[in-house]
Amino acid sequence: MNSNSQMILQAENITKRFGGMTAVNNVSFSLAKNEIAALIGANGAGKTTFFNILTGNYIPEEGAIYYKGQDITRLSPEIRVDLGIMRTFQLASTFDNLKVIDNLRLAYYRATNKFSLRKTFFSRMDRIVSAKIDECLETFNLTKLADRMTANISLGEKRVLEIAMSLVTDPEVLLLDEPFAGLSEVEIDECLTVLRQQVHKKTILIVEHKISKIQDLVEKVGVMVEGVMIASGETNEVLNCERVRKEYWKTAE
Ligand SMILES: Nc1ncnc2c1ncn2[C@@H]1O[C@H](COP(=O)(O)OP(=O)(O)OP(=O)(O)O)[C@@H](O)[C@H]1O
Ligand SMILES: [Mg+2]
Description:
Layout: E1 7-18, E2 21-32, E3 36-40, H1 47-55, E4 62-67, E5 70-71, H2 77-83, E6 85-87, H3 100-112, H4 131-139, H5 155-167, E7 173-177, H6 185-196, E8 203-208, E9 220-225, E10 228-234, H7 235-240, H8 242-247, H9 249-252
Helix pairs in contact: 3-5, 5-6
The structure holds adenosine-5'-triphosphate (ATP) and magnesium ion.
């Protein structure tokens, strides 16, 4: 058990190397319950690598991850999902050949059933019924798109669908890797509206290149430069600190 139990998710002194390259170098970062935070930094700073350590996709060489005080450093991504830690991917991960509602049904089914998908499953999609699925369609303004093929909705709508899919099972923690990548300003605003609804209801970490879009949304920021977390803490304090001004802004602008 870890001492700081107020933190729902804690990373302590995480180091991850790829061959001779240290992608994440002795990084510590923590999220309090229902806090919304951002992890920012330039291309190749190590954000996704660190994110993958939180999700269980990578095991670090050094350091530990705690979830509600429990050491989860070596637990699989599947077990972490069961514990309540959900993620989205840097690139859209919806199924284009399914209807919008079926993507939600699939996300719900995958998270609530321990059995593997059977061949017959796709033809019986409509048997997966849950108030949670309807609620999700409603909350994320997807009801009007429910029966559309996902291939035919916009990238912004897909991103909203992805966030909806990750929340359909009511996880405690939501980890988002560049949720606005490739979106237009209008689509980003749609996504932001969706995320604002979750503020203080979920613990959320958003990985982004630039802080500008989410500055007013996040309470805490961590700044990574070349694998190192050069600053973390309350958003404005961090963004105005000397080291961040020198080392982050020059690469991010
Ligand atoms: N699987 C891997 N094998 C080898 N090197 C990797 C691997 N994944 C990432 N790296 C390297 O680790 C460093 C950090 O990459 P990472 O993807 O974590 O950065 P990032 O901050 O997410 O960048 P971006 O903003 O471009 O998404 C980079 O130099 C990258 O080339
Ligand atoms: Mg990345």
